[in-house]
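Quick note —
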Amino acid sequence: AVSDQALERRRRNSVGTGDRWRRHRRSAANRGIDGRSLLMATRSPLPARILIPVANPLTAEELVRLGASLLDRRAGELTALGIVEVPEGMPLSEGATRARHARRLLQRVLDFAPEGTTIHPIVRIGRHAAEGIVEAAAEQEADLIIFGWGGKSHGPPGTPPTTGRGGDGRGQAASMNSANGQPTAAGRGPTRQIAGARTTVFSPTIDEVVRESPCDIAVVKQRGSTAIRRILVPVRGGPHAELALRFADALARRHDATLAVLHLVPPGITLAVRAQAERALSAFIRQQIGGRAEPLVREAANVRNAILREAETADLVVMGASAAPGGTDGEGTLFGALPEAIATRARPTVVVVKTRESIGHRTFEQLAQKAETLAAADRAAEEARAVPARVERWFGESNFHHAEFAELRRLVQLKEKQNLTISLVLPTLDEEETIGPIVRRAIRELMGRAPLLDEIVVVDSASTDRTREVAEAEGARVIQHPEVLSRYGSFKGKGEALWKSLYETSGDLIVWADTDVRNWHPRMVYGTLGPLLHEPRLQYVKGYYQRPIVEGGILREGGGGRVTELVARPLINLFFPELSGLIQPLSGEYAGRRSLLESIPFFTGYAVEIGHLIDVAERVGLEGLGQVDLERRVHRNQELEGLTRMSFVILQAVMKRLEERRKARLFAELGSTMKLPRSGRGRLSLEVIELADQERPPMIRIPEYLERRRGVGLLPVESALR
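Predicted structure written out below.
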């Protein structure tokens, strides 16, 4: 006979044993060791002690065989557990007779153990089966509990689901409560009320054990599999999937079976996204089992049906739980609706495993941040599917025409109402032919007739012609960018001039406009400013236009933008598809809010525009960008070799951003030299030039800039602390 006092002492002792793991984990956390690293460090890939709760020994053979296959062969042992439940109000000693009978029944389990496998039958008396299982697992220091599950049977439409074998949904987890040792209900139904909604679970007993268990859990939906020749493992990454793959590998080795690892992706994804998923799956297999498996990447709109189809050719399915603890994934069950559906409907035996770890959305968020993980591949697939619709919507909502903002007095009113100041920056390099009319017209139209601009600054890059003198004569303030922030040195290039213009200007909004334009019009300024003044959500606006090209002294429509069409647009569509709706990503007319511009880095040369777009989109999202139709612009066209150099630098910048964002090395070394063949009459040579944009940090990190902004009371406290 077992007294209540003895049971309580045993419970305290067993719980103390189980708490050793939790104390060990807390201690490791204090030393900066995460839970997953601790698990890998404190246990072998296979369990050394497996507990199998047995309700009916006659149906336990498959569970024992599976348990024996999963054991660590060096020192593994199985424990078959029988639970005798004694209702509240009755002395625990009333269970003594049934306990003796249960022990006799459990002796039959010994016949199922393969040769060389140690199995110990034990019986525990308690008030509830779940408590007895948790206590026994702690006593035995079990690494794994294996449950059998009878499955659900569905009644007429509108009736609650009932359970199969065993009658109460607990399958092999039920207690031996009747005289013949068969499981009977213990007053708990097959569903649980969570937040007012009925949630189907594997069983109430399994549910309770999972919440309290000190070890991993495996639930087996038995189909009587005997010969195991092919094992299917559906995975999406994460600790549950890792455990499933390790267990499946052990089973495959013991049964000399083939192992197929399945990862599903949405239909219609790009080849690049599919290739990422294939690489991630292969890496996942290598990391867990050394690569001894067949990786399968399949496109499927319905995940459940796709897994069921693959399961038709398998003899066993092993999969990880899909739900986070406590139903935080919205499914409301501890194992997830998908594994339960597969276990219910698949033809072969299904094993669903769940680690002892506490796993939530943060686990998968962290995995998604790592390159070449399945979680990262899944995120890429989701984003790839969402991008087209998102870009189309943005294209419709954030596409403007300069004529919408031609009423300058209205723009001035918006500017004054929002208490904003505006700076126009005109970068120059040998532009004496065009800079005069541009400055003259900008001052007359945008400062005289309508006080839209507060300052016009020409940032010159050491022109060798009369650019500076012409601009000053027209009334512009001219600065030489090599002289600005001179202690940081100076680089050649438009991007360097734009970066230093942030230091030299004071406006809340900054407009940049190219100065090699022969048909310059104030719309090049108010066109990009208008959306910023009208829509506070917008942070950065690009202009676009028709770009005719001069060939042989003849102006031909539609020939401009060669680098855009041959280099920038393909790169954007391949690697940054969210920016694919930008009509002219390399245009020289754009405007932005200082609070954004001072927080992003600047490439110093040709790559400044593409770098801006990538960095701005990452910081404020596609919704923070706009574009405006400026109609037609005629400017000086570069020779083909100049376009080659521009393309080379743009490619470098995109590769650099890809390596930074994806946290992966694309190349062993990113080249910075370009070889230009020279051939002609009596001449054949190879010119090697060094060609690479430097990168300036966000201006907000420059102490002199911070001091200047503070000195005039223009730097918010939060900016100063960035």
